[in-house]
Specification:
Blueprint (H helix, E strand, L loop, with lengths): L12 H24 L4 H23 L9 H12 L1 H9 L5 H31 L4 H25 L1 H7 L6 H28 L4 H21 L12 H4 L1 H26 L5 H8 L1 H21 L14 H24 L6 H6 L4
Helix pairs in contact: 1-9, 1-11, 2-11, 2-13, 2-14, 3-14, 4-5, 4-14, 5-6, 5-9, 5-14, 6-7, 6-8, 6-9, 8-9, 9-11, 13-14
Length: 358
């Protein structure tokens, strides 16, 4: 008797539909609302910071720093070093190097993009593992997705006038943007071919659909759709404020996916664990409540760095604001390192067991 093919869902159509696939639609709807009603942008930004961005940082800590059974000293030390590294930029700024903090923001922007691209690939890799995709399909998904995403982002930075102005790219680089767009098109064609192969073979095309839709198509929407209407915040005075809506839409998507996968993986991870650590890990809503409480402190750091309108506690570019800017990016650099090590589906047997990936 033939075995029933594995379910392509990481949890269920409803759960995956909200957190992993439908997150793109939810994020797009948030973008449409703030474009139609620009006055909502600032309060929605702060709601995102409290309810999604901060909690997604805290969710990583629950699986690492707050888990007594977690032990990876090299990663812990590397993450700590990364978290403290922005203080070097702050010291250089205080020593009189005028562009030190701008360099920090540039490094942070590139690392943030890399982190986002890697999360998209991680999601697709999980779906590939779930349906036991052959190695050549997994490699195609890996390269077509990551190259395609970077190509879309480069094209968006060079072809959208506002983005080009913010990054300081001269107009003669526009042809490179078109080359990047062509590369993205080839990657899309490869993924379409991969989906067609899956349908013909009678296997689930879901991994390819996730790569093409919630990853590449969504990034096209953020870079070109949202980028074409920025700045939504009419009183924008800094590069970060000029792309507030783009940051919001991309951040909602990223946060929803991340919280979903943490909740999903935590259930079996903390099953049978005694005490409050185990209880909290098994109850997603309780964990989320704690993440939000921790995010209140993160909210204060964000206000103290004086980047988002509505709560700017110190003069922008003041020494105090720069200190909190360094602390802010330190939190993210710490997160980026931890996150790069704890979601290795291909290498982490325990993670594969938690996600029922075989």
């Amino acid at each position: 008797m033939d075995r029933e093919p594995p379910s392509p869902w990481l949890d269920s159509p409803a759960f995956d539909g909200v957190f992993f696939i439908g997150a793109a639609l939810i994020s797009g709807m948030v973008g449409a609302v703030v474009v139609a009603l620009p006055g909502l942008l600032v309060p929605v930004i702060w709601a995102w910071v409290l309810l999604l961005e901060g909690p997604h940082l805290a969710a990583t800590w629950q699986r690492t720093l707050f888990d007594p059974e977690y032990s990876d000293p090299p990663t812990t030390r590397l993450a700590l070093a990364a978290g403290l590294s922005p203080l070097l930029f702050l010291g250089a700024s205080l020593a009189g190097l005028p562009d030190a903090m701008e360099l920090l923001v540039a490094v942070a922007a590139v690392w943030s993009i890399h982190h986002t691209v890697r999360q998209h690939h991680g999601m697709v890799a999980m779906y590939d593992a779930r349906v036991h995709s052959p190695r050549w399909v997994r490699e195609l998904d890996r390269w077509a997705l990551q190259v395609g995403l970077w190509a879309v982002i480069i094209a968006g930075q060079l072809l959208v006038p506002l983005n080009r102005q913010i990054v300081g790219a001269p107009d003669f680089l526009v042809p490179i943007g078109w080359v990047a767009a062509a590369v993205a098109g080839l990657c899309v064609a490869a993924l379409l071919g991969r989906i067609g192969w899956a349908v013909r073979q009678g296997v689930s095309p879901l991994p390819g659909i996730v790569a093409l839709g919630p990853a590449i198509a969504f990034t096209v929407f953020v870079m070109f759709g949202m980028g074409s209407v920025e700045p939504v915040y009419a009183s924008a005075s800094t590069p970060e404020q000029r792309v507030l809506a783009m940051s919001l839409v991309g951040g909602v998507m990223h946060g929803l996916q991340y919280l979903g996968i943490v909740v999903l993986a935590n259930r079996p991870r903390f099953a049978g664990r005694p005490g409050w650590v185990g209880w909290l890990g098994r109850h997603g809503w309780a964990s989320y409540g704690c993440w939000v409480l921790l995010s209140v402190g993160y909210l204060g750091i964000d206000a103290a760095r004086s980047a988002y309108p509505g709560a700017m506690w110190f003069a922008p570019s003041s020494a105090t604001a720069e200190l909190f800017m360094a602390l802010y990016w330190g939190l993210f650099f710490h997160h980026y390192v931890l996150d790069s090590r704890i979601w290795k589906v291909s290498r982490d047997v325990a993670l594969r067991r938690e996600l029922a990936l075989g």
